[in-house]
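Q: How would the structure tokens look for this protein?
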Amino acid sequence: MKLYSLSVLYRSEPRAVLLKAAFDVSSFSFFQRSSIQEFMTFTSQLIVERSTKGSRASVKEQEYLCHVYVRNDGLAGVVIADSEYPSRVAFSLLEKVLDEFSKQVDRIDWPVGSPATIQYSALEGHLSRYQNPREADPMSKVQAELDETKIILARKQNSCCAIM
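A: Here is the predicted structure in token form.
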């Protein structure tokens, strides 16, 4: 499970504007990293432009899964991950990031903003913390503990049956 990109965009009428983005392209070769980042930025903008306001969607692009959430006010978030990453965790991350972003950045700056002018530094931290969804998301953590408990109970039950 891997997160590659976390982007915040504004969906204006002619096209989507990238406001801020964070990337983890360390798993790619050094010479591919810039083109991979461009691909992820372009794909994020394209998906936001084609999504309606107030919608959530997951789109498969090559071997990646792109999760997009466009709010009614035009603020949008995109997570690009591998196909194993849980979509529920991706959408909870998007909702959290967009709520924080809308509180920290004035709405007036959204249509004219750019990654250089927007002051929001939490994306890198969210991207690194959510690399392991079981640690970042409380429900995933509880589910993992529950699965572990089931395995232990099954082993105990089998050992008890073997004794009899």
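The beta strands are 3-11, 16-23, 55-61, 64-70, 75-82.

The longest strand covers residues 3-11.

Upvote if useful.
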